[in-house]
Amino acid sequence: MTTDLLGYIAAFLTTTSFLPQVIRTLRTGDTRSISFAMYLMLVAGVATWLAYGLLLGALPIVLANGITLLLASIILVMKWREIRAGRKES
User: What is the predominant subcellular site recorded for this chain (predicted)?
Assistant: First the structure.
């Protein structure tokens, strides 16, 4: 098994692990049980991994973190909107 193949397998598994949460959140619109701080830190970390992958020219790292950044950002934005809506109601 080549190193890149292992990277692609890891990338596929970790990236697709976000799909069930994104699909559920988009369908229900419910983000009450999701931690804003956790997703904020996750998005920042994934963006940093993406930058690292770009600097290395490591395609498995770039692909995995680019897609994960998109998926995690969707949830983060939905959570942020929920927080803002809650403040307006107060």
Answer: membrane
DSSP codes of every residue in 68-84? HHHHHHHHHHHHHHHHH
Number of domains in the chain: 1
Range of the domain at 70: 3-89
Q: CATH code at 39?
A: 1.20.1280.290
Question: pLDDT tens, 45-88?
Answer: 999 999 999 999 988 899 999 999 999 999 999 999 999 988 77
pTM: 0.86
DSSP one-letter string for 15-80:
HHTTHHHHHHHHHH---TTS-HHHHHHHHHHHHHHHHHHHHHT-HHHHHHHHHHHHHHHHHHHHHH
